[in-house]
Every structure is written in structure tokens, then in C-alpha cells.
Amino acid sequence: MTYRILIVEDHNLLRHGLRSMITALPGYEVVGEAREGKEAIREALSLHPDMILMDLSLPGMNGIEATAQIKRRMPDIHILVLTVYKTDEYVTEALRVGADGYVLKDASYDEFVTAIQTVAGGKNISAPMCRCT
After folding, report:
1. Per residue in 64-73, pLDDT tens?
2. Are strands 51-54 and 3-8 parallel, antiparallel or unpaired?
3. I need a labelling partner for 130 at 20 to 30 A (CA). Which of 24, 114, 116, 118 fits?
């Protein structure tokens, strides 16, 4: 079975890099991309991915609101937040609205892959995964 992922990220270079990393993982495929929150909702409803990688800082509707709306409509989709924000406020709010995990953009490649595999396996990540130096 192939695990289907939607990437929601407004920065082109990062979005393309994420696509490359994910498609290199056996058993995972990127089924779509979105650059802002409302587009993420439309793509989720259309594509029915297994997981969404969700940035929080998006033009228009932010990732917190998009996550809340997607989880209300499609609670079985796993949402892994991928962001630069590491404050308790952001982590708590993302998890409160239904995110299944939270990984920081400064995480190592191995931490990123572990976060995807953990959430894909049905487990939640309640604290941000990151390289803490």
C-alpha cells in the first residue's frame, strides 16, 4: 500500500525539496501540493490524502485554521505540522485543533522521516521534533 501525502507550503523551493524527499521514501507518494490554507482544504477534499504536511505560516488562511477545518470535515486524515514556530503556544494550538504531530523545519532528515513514519503509523507526536543544540 502506498501512503498518500499532500504538501501545504508557500515557499516553492521548500515544497519541491519536500516532494523530492518524500518520493524517495519507499511506500510514500506526494499526491498534491497547496500554497495556502483555502487551497489546502480544497485539495484535501478532492484528493483524500492519508497525510497532510502543513506549514503554519501561510498567506490568506493560516495553517492552524486550515488544520481545524480539514479535521472537522475529514478527521481520518493525519496532519503533521511542519513549521519554524517552536513556542508552546503554537504547539498547543496546533494539537488542540487536531494536528497529529509537530516537526520543526530545523529538524534533521532522520527526525523528519521519523515524524512522517510515526504519524503515518497512527501515533501522535505531542512535542516538536527538532535538533536541539
Report:
1. 999 999 999 9
2. parallel
3. 24
